[in-house]
Structures are given as structure tokens and as C-alpha cells.
């Protein structure tokens, strides 16, 4: 989490089922245990949501060739039946390192044992 003066504030009110779903996500991800107050929990949740959204927009753009997709197009894609298989395919075959899932059992990059540091 970044400390300092915020440059963008995101506020949203959720009611009924969406509010319960957010609470459940916080518990599932351990955000409720890792952060002391509501503001910190909201920030952690938004940081994760923005990271996920960036990767999904990049995948949508890569799959459809649309550099600036509309909200409606991305939302429809996320709600579509074939979304998960297309997104997984994109993650496995895309060449952008930020979008490729790292296998923790493998080293991120070869170690330079002669100089004692990675790569």
C-alpha cells in the first residue's frame, strides 16, 4: 500500500447482495485480518481490483485488437460464457511478462552465481 497524498479517490456504495459479496471477498482474501481499519481494507481491495481490471482490459484488447474498448464491451465479455477459457488462453500464450502467471516452483530468472545476484 502506498503512503502519501492520494491523487485519486474512488467512492462507491454497495447495498444488499453486492455488499455481502464484497465482505465475503475480503474474508476470503484475508484483507479483514491484514488491515486494521475500513479505509485500509477498501484501499487493499481497490488495489487488487484495479490490478485485475488492468489485466482483463489488456487481455480483451489483445484478443479483440481493440486498444480502447468501451466499458459495455468489456463488461459483456466478462459476463460471457466463453470468457474464462479465452482469458486463460490469452494468459498462457501472450508474450507480455506482466500478463503471464509465474510458476512459483521455477526461478523467475536464472541466478548469476558468480556475482551473487539474479540475472
What count of helical segments does DSSP give? 5
**Main sheet: strand order:** 1-2
Largest sheet: 2 strands, antiparallel
Mean pLDDT: 80
Structural class: mainly alpha
End-to-end gap? 28 Å
What is the strand tally? 2
Radius of gyration: 18 Å
**Order of helices and strands, N to C?**
HHHHHEE
The residue fraction in helices comes out at 40-55%
Strand content: under 5%
* Coarse shape: globular
Low-confidence stretches: 97-104, 106-119
Secondary structure: elements and pairs:
Blueprint: H1 16-29, H2 31-34, H3 38-64, H4 71-79, H5 83-93, E1 111-112, E2 117-118
Antiparallel strand pairs: 1-2
Task: Give a short summary of the structure.
The chain is mainly alpha-helical and about 120 residues long. The protein has 5 helices and 2 strands, in the order αααααββ.
Describe this structure in words.
Residues 97-104 and 106-119 have low confidence and may be disordered. This protein has a domain at 16-93. A two-stranded antiparallel ribbon has the order 1-2. It has 119 residues and is mainly alpha-helical. The longest helix is centred in the middle third of the chain and has 27 residues, at 38-64. It has helices spanning 16-29, 31-34, 38-64, 71-79, 83-93; strands at 111-112, 117-118. Helices cover 55% and strands 3% of the residues. It has five helices and two strands, in the order αααααββ.
